[in-house]
Amino acid sequence: MSKQTMSLTLHIWRQPGPDRPGRLVPYKVTDVSPDMSFLEMLDVLNEGIIEGKIKDVGNYGPVVFDHDCREGICGMCSMVVNGEPHGPRRGTTTCQLHMRSFEDGDEIYIEPWRAKAFPIVKDLVVDRSAFDNIIAAGGFISVNTGSAPDANAIPIGKRDADEAFDYAACIGCGACVAACPNASAMLFVGAKVAHLVKMPQGQVERESRVINMVSTMDDAGFGACTNHGECSRSCPKEISLDAIMLLNREYMRATVKTRGK
Amino acid sequence: MQLNARIPSGPIAKKWDRHRFEMKLVNPANKRKFDVIVVGSGLAGASASATMAELGYNVRCFCFQDSPRRAHSIAAQGGINAAKNYQNDGDSVYRLFYDTVKGGDFRAREANVYRLAQISVNIIDQCAAQGVPFAREYGGVLDNRSFGGAQVSRTFYARGQTGQQLLLGAYQALERQIGLGNVKMHSRTEMLDVVVIDGHARGIITRNLVTGEIQSWTADAIVLATGGYGNTYYLSTNAKGCNVTASYRAYKRGAGFANPCFTQIHPTCIPVSGHYQSKLTLMSESLRNDGRVWVPKKKGDPRSPKDIPEDERDYYLERKYPSFGNLVPRDVAARSAKYVCDEGRGVNGPGSHAVFLDFADAVERLGANVVADRYGNLFDMYERISGDNPYKTPMKIFPAVHYTMGGLWVDYNLMSSIPGLHVIGEANFSDHGANRLGASALMQGLADGYFILPYTIGNYLATAKQPKITPEHAAMKAAEQAVRDRTAKLLSLDGKRTVDSFHRELGLIMWDYCGISRNRAGLEKALQLIPELRERFWREASVPGSGEELNPWLEKAGRVADFLEFGEIMCHDALQREESCGGHFREEYQTPGGEAQRDDENYCYGAVWEYQGVGTTPTLHKEHYQFEYVKLATRNYK
Q: Is the predicted pLDDT of residue A1 greater than 60, yes or no?
């Protein structure tokens, strides 16, 4: 473990509410240990602001940000660090990013996810309920409790199961949307469609699922994919861009199959 | 307080069947006339909400996160047990039942545990049908592994993310019901009180965390699925938001709190790295299947692990427990780690608290590829946090608070001592006794939510026959006002210290005196320190911001204020239990070999506490456990 500490300048997006103007506000933090997580560094900043040890520029008070599990799985933390959702380290959520990825004297820019479909609640916190609505529209297999056959009655090849898992690993954080110049949610939607279509259980609702999810996605104001690939690059679970290809194919197939029905 | 466990009569294997027949049913056409509130959207809360909505009840579900998918069940890594016996290795419902009662050190209710083992098989079926991507064999059938010291392979898993995949299954079932209009979801909403009218739980008071609006909600039955209280210790593997507030508010309204001192300290977590540490991260127990735990034989050995020759290493678990070795249960492994560090043999510098978990032999035996296949994501996570590569150098681990076996007391129907108030998942005192076995938490949360509560709540609704009430009821209004007053009081705190600093201080008191091992003098000291700390909190803490906005510091202050009262109950409980059992190790009560010494004659009961006022010792009630099927025996892992 390294003993040297760092001093940093943070430029943090402060916005008191959805309809209020926001701006980047600079803060100085010192004694940052490289072993700290990024969010622990922000905790130190906030404690400093509350205790009056760090200057509360503009009297915004401590910085509000979403976080919960702090082990990279709940998907709650959501900030753009130096222009990249979840920061510079591939396959890593902000909470798992550690300060050893930065250098003494760095200037770090911290902003919220920016997308029309994710309105800002306050500071770095956005409203991602559009994702829940997309799942509610079809991101499930309709099986009421109690009506399941024996689990081994539905064999699934290891390869299919592993592939389904790769897509199911999505944590719903929204980094894909934040990274996309079009604020497209197609990686998120594609991952769920792909997870369920890879499994025999998911075949029955195959067409209705993709049509309903895509239509809810469009209504929420997410943009369309124009193949930039930023989503997959920013994804903390490294979900493959294949999800979008698969989504397009499934959507096309479903519209053809259900035409006239 | 009346404690009637309502255990059905008859042989244990027939109790649940018989009970399901004897329970009153609600006519399908009448179900939509009943409103049910579920607080919490983890495995238990989401599965219960979805299932009750499928049955036809009107469900309202509340969670403090921005989406129900983020509840902390998501972080469970290892797996879920079920007595499927797919591996043909001698497992059975009875064996899972037996292992769970024994593993819990005979401090759980037999009938409940048997039911849990019975239902375990249905859970796997349900989850597989939902599309949960469990690990599979090449032939397409489900894969199993042995986990946490079990001698059969009964653990189903989805890489190291089983909790995530099971929760997403339950979340998707819940979202489906939300889409159908059968569940009204209230995210970013925190429950701050439960309202009891004519002896029945009839409503809750919530605060909308975004707008600050304080609201009353009424229902015909209330379900708490609000998780455990591990964050009383400040540092734990729980998510930052996990809290005791909902359970504690119910306790203050008259619900008995059972066995609060039964906390599980998980042996394999990443050690503390500095004062700024905000949480601890679990490294799945499955790592102990192939990793070997050791410390240097010499105290304060400054050498790097690769320079310490084999004969100067102490593989203390293999030495002390030759038949279970590195796979001894969690409480035994955690205590042993503490002892070697107390001896000065910690491996993270002088006076440190860490031991090695070494994969060198596994890499040599299996090859790095196989090790990566089994543990790759965990190794990556470790490397991200610590900066060390576990393929090359041993991991450093130390025990951390992980799970709480204690919780609100419930009867066989999962109803608390307040009629109408049901408690499921980790929030109840449950089936794990004094020590939970690995991969049993997911099983219990889903058993409660999918298969037990949806039946038993019908029996309550069919028989309770309470009048409909509205949020304008005087008792609702009074509770709402009390929540407003308390919020205002918290916001008026304008001292110099952050709420977190008090929480950290409480955590240290709890860890030092009510942690891996406890003794009378320490617990009495804690009972003196906690009220002092609480008093200072209300004098010196600072809560910035207002009540009409998203204000995490206000939320935290309310939760920490509750922890500061609740920690005392944990210490009272640990003090009265003059025996060692499971996760509760009283130094005064150990065998000459240093193992836990249970006292079945005097302490074979669930300790259920009744609130008597802040700072006043609560009243102790006892539910005596009868063991008809599993003979009381000393756990022996030698």
A: no
CA geometry: angle at B636 spanning B631 and B638, to 5°?
155
Q: Give residues with Cβ within 8 angstroms of A174, minimum separation 6.
A: A75, A78, A113, A115, A118, A126, A128, A131, A188
- Specify if B625 maps to a domain: no
**Among A110, A201, A199, A116, residue whose Cα is nearest residue A162:** A199
Nearest CA in chain A to B156: A151
Q: Give φ, ψ of B577 to 5 degrees.
A: -85, 90
Q: Which domain holds residue B394?
A: 269-398
Give A4 to chain B, closest Cα distance, Å: 13
From B494's Cα to the closest Cα of chain A, the distance in A is 10
User: For the domain A6-122, what is the CATH code?
Assistant: 3.10.20.30
Mean pLDDT, chain A, rounded, equals: 96
Cα A83–A87–A89 angle (5° rounding)?
A: 130
Domain boundary assignment for chain A: 6-122, 129-257
The pLDDT tens digits for B397-437 are 999 999 999 999 999 999 999 999 999 999 999 899 999 99
Domains contained in chain B, number: 2
- CATH class entry, domain A129-257: mainly alpha
The model's pLDDT over B41-63, given as tens digits with 9 standing for 90+, comes to 999 999 999 999 999 999 999 99
**Domain containing residue B575: CATH number:** 1.20.58.100
**Mutation target among A4, A46, A74 for the B interface, most CBs of B within 10 A:** A74
Domain final position from B398, B415, B450: B398
Q: Which residues of A touch B173 (CB under 8 A)?
A: 140, 143, 145
Q: How far apart are the first and last CA of chain B?
A: 42
pLDDT at B238 over 90: yes
CA angle in degrees (0–180, nearest 5) for B351-B352-B355: 130
State the catalytic residues of B.
330
Q: Last residue of some domain: B368, B398, B428?
A: B398
CATH code assigned at B305 = 3.90.700.10
Inter-chain CB proximity A145 and B47 less than 8 Å: yes
Please answer yes or no on whether B179 and A72 come within 8 Å at the CB atom: no
Mutate to test the interface with A, among B240, B282, B383, B451 (most CBs of A within 10 A): B240
Beta-strand relationship, B355-358 and B541-542: unpaired
Collapsing DSSP states into helix, strand and coil, what is residue B462?
Answer: helix
Q: What is the ipTM of this complex?
A: 0.98
